[in-house]
Amino acid sequence: MASINLDNVGKVYPGGTRAVEGVNIDIADGEFIVLVGPSGCGKSTLLRMVAGLEEITEGEVRIGDRVVNRVEPAERDIAMVFQNYALYPHMSVRKNLEYGLKNRGTSRAEIDRRVAEAAEILQIGPYLDRKPRALSGGQRQRVAMGRAIVREPAAFLFDEPLSNLDAKLRVAMRLEIKELQKRLRTTSLYVTHDQLEAMTLADRLVVLNGGRVEQIGTPLEVYRKPASAFVASFIGSPAMNLIPASAVPHLPGTGHAGLIGIRPEDLHPAPDGQIELKIDAVEELGATRLVHGKVGAEMVTVTMPSDAELPETLRLDVAPGAVHLFRKDGGARLT
Amino acid sequence: MIENRPFLNLLTHLVLILGVAIVALPVWVAFVASTHTATDFSSGTIPMWPGPHLVENYSRMLDSGLSTSGTPPVARMMLNSLIMAMAIAIGKIVISVLSAFAIVYFRFPLRNFAFWCIFVTLMLPVEVRIVPTFQVVAGLGLLNSYAGLSIPLIASATATFLFRQVFLTMPDELVEAARIDGAGPMKFFRDILLPLSRTNIAALFVILFIYGWNQYLWPLLITTDAQYYTIVAGIKRMADAVDGLPQWHLVMATAVMAMLPPVAVVIGMQRLFVKGLVETEK
Amino acid sequence: MKRTIFSNQLLPWLLLAPQLAITFIFFIWPAMQAVWQSFLREDAFGIRSTFVGLDNYARLWGSAEYMNSMQVTLIFSVSVTLLSMGFSLLLAVAVDRTLRSSRLYTTLLVWPYAVAPAVAGILWWFIFNPTIGILPYMLDQIGYDWNHISNPNQAMLLVVIASAWKQISYNFLFFVAGLQSIPASLREAAAIDGAGPVKRFFTITFPLLSPTTFFLMVVNIVYAMFETFAVIDSTTEGGPAQATNILVYKVYFDGFVGQNMGSSGAQSVILMLIVIVLTVIQFRWVEKKVAY
User: Fold this and answer.
1) What is the reported pTM?
2) Using H for helix, E for strand and C for coil, what is the string for C233-284?
């Protein structure tokens, strides 16, 4: 078990392309941190730098008290779960779990104890002598986790481990990973592009965009107080409405903001509402419905109960605390 | 797709049966000839059906050979061919798999230069540079030796390219997982890369064994000592000698025996053979 | 390109060492020797050699024998390629039509790949043997006189047949693979559009097969030019009257039998250039295939 510290970490590829810039993250012992962002935001590169699979070109990474910039992956005391699981296809499940321990010279008795324990935790005992190709996606996922667990490492690194599973299994495995991490209390760094997965798993979220950190915070902090227009649009589903302040001039308290953001669920029908929405389309979700339309020329989405009546234009109101204000240039949050 | 054209179906099978017959004709004629005696040919035409002298002709060639042509017994030549074919096939696989591993999994200065050096071998078939290559091998004192028969033929660009292709399609995550599991380059090579390339190695072995067995010009040139004659090159020496004194039945018996091992390999391992053939051309 | 690599610097050289050593000693060094020899001429006793520049090449250019060999090689390569590919394509299309028995036919058609070119030469030499061969006997019945030992055209025909026969299995396998990679839905669509089997072959199948056809064409020409040495040597030995003396055979003959190192070296260099051109064409094809 250990803390992980990233100190002004950056990555420039030999060709001059910059992937990551000035990242500072302090991860406490036992914490579950999720790196989230759109594809190409540098989240995987960052994880791979912690793992030792990518060279760290700027800054410092510490695991525990040790600077690991020049330490081989095998010496960093970490374990990694890959997107495609990366199980050795020619080895049985048991051999897959044992391989890393054998390379470390762990004693036979200790190997057997750890494999048995991991098999028990993950309920993969019955498959220990099968080859990976004879397993279902979910079972392979468990084996990949097992390979990480048996190592009893200082930290788990997860690189989009659930994205190859179907939607239903993904939700189930998400819960399992969360519970497992709570039980083992192993520091974890988890990469995903799925904001829902990020929200449900993380103790704290790190939202990345264009190789830089946009915001670090608990899921609720990030949701309630997005640090930038980017975070506001990325976290939450359906996405927050972002419109130029000029489109709603009579909204009070907007000051000199460039962009205002309102979550679809914060807009409510009101007979004397300030905002007039011309409805274009309606999506029924069952319990609720999404109403899409235009305010002026801007696309706006509203979440409404599905039994409400729908006229051609809706008058909407918004609670003063639910309006987010962002600067015009760069989109940083105001107040 | 439903297509009811009895005439076309009949024609298809007719074409195929005719094709198989044409393909098989020379071998059938050779086999028939190898079961007769020399006097059966002197009448002017050769028979179309096998005669009773199969065992006699074959055992004679295997044990003592055709002494008038200066060739050793066929058994000896087949052993030489086997040694050469195995040495070439195994040698090519070993040096190619090692160099492909170096080229794919390492970055080092002059890597492209090394790659092009290997590529050159693809462009220079032995027949094209035969005279100077012979001089080099003679200079090294490798004439009349198994080393001389095999080593100059084991550099292989094709095999290196094949393994490079195989390694490039292996997921990156496997190396990464192995590195996190504490495996160094050679451990990764032995524990993961080689086992995963098993079928490719086997398929390539089939192709290279045939290639080695069928070598002709090279063994013909560098062996003057009959103890090192290979069977494919030996037949030519027999055929030359028989022009005066027709011993066709014995030459054909030798030809059939020369074909047997590689043909057996192709038919017995058809699936691997087709895989090897198609992959080496990608 | 691999994302993750090992950082050792010495190890890759150790791994490459055997391959590079053999390549250098048996490929690059002899090739350089050939180039060097092509600029020299030895005296009558083979003791002294003098630098003659491009004179060996000029002599080849002016040599009727060498020009004849070029022409023979061209006729030979084109004939082998056309005969072998045509026959193989016919068989491949037929096998592609059969469902149940295609595996059996394939097995019966692939084995000539394993027969050594030298052995293939001997077999056909025997079948066409003017005194005891089966085919001359049959040809004689219909009044045709076969003697490839004295007739240049018949000698050429013999080596073409022997060389093409050996290559049938290879072409056949690639044509079958090519045919199988054409989506059945295309032929089905054509059938629904009312095209019969013959029309379908010429308007759909054959055009879609063209990458395979082109690839095989290059491979067959390379085969006919360089790998048929054994067929020639085990049968006609270049005769009669130079009628089957293809370029590779001439390099060998002038070098080993004629001991004319300068001329043989120049011929080697020319052949190497031809191989390089053909290899580049072949690799262009590979790149094109990747782009599909």
Assistant:
1) 0.84
2) HHCCCCCCCCCCCCHHHHHHHHHHHCCCHHHHHHHHHHHHHHHHHHHHHHHH
Q: Check B259 against C9: CB less than 8 A apart.
A: no
Residue B6 inside a domain? The answer is no
Place of tokens 């914490």: A31
Domain that holds residue B160: 34-278
* Rounded-to-integer distance, Cα B179 and Cα B50, Å: 64
Q: Would B167 be classed as within a structural domain?
A: yes
pLDDT tens for each residue of chain A, 335 residues long = 689 999 999 999 988 899 999 999 999 999 999 999 999 899 999 999 999 998 999 999 999 989 999 998 989 999 999 998 999 999 999 999 999 999 999 999 999 999 999 999 999 999 999 999 999 989 999 999 999 999 999 999 999 999 888 988 999 999 999 999 999 999 999 999 999 999 999 999 999 999 999 999 999 999 999 999 999 999 988 899 998 888 777 776 666 678 889 999 999 888 888 888 999 999 998 888 999 999 888 899 999 888 777 788 888 888 878 888 888 877 888 86
Residues in C closer than 8 angstroms to B185, CB to CB, are 6, 8, 11
Determine the CATH number of domain C55-288.
1.10.3720.10
Spell out which residues of chain B touch residue A85, defining contact as CB-CB under 8 Å. Answer: 173
* Pair A55, A225: CB distance under 8 Å: no
Architecture of domain A238-326: Beta Barrel (2.40)
Domain count, chain B: 1
Chains that touch A (3 or more CB pairs under 8 A): B
The full set of domain ranges for chain A reads: 4-227, 238-326
In a domain, B5, yes or no: no
Pick the CATH number of A4-227 from 3.30.70.270, 3.30.70.420, 3.50.50.60, 3.40.50.300: 3.40.50.300
Inter-chain residue contact A103 with B176, CB threshold 8 Å: no
Q: How far apart are CA A271 and CA B110, in angstroms?
A: 76
ipTM over 0.85: yes
Alpha-carbon span A329 to A256, nearest angstrom? 12
CB C265 within 8 A of CB C56: yes
Whether C186 contacts chain B with CB within 8 A: no
Measured N-to-C along each axis, helices C152-180 and C210-222 cross at an angle, to the nearest 10 degrees, of 140
Q: A82 and chain B: CB distance < 8 Å anywhere?
A: yes
Q: What's the CATH code of the domain at B232?
A: 1.10.3720.10
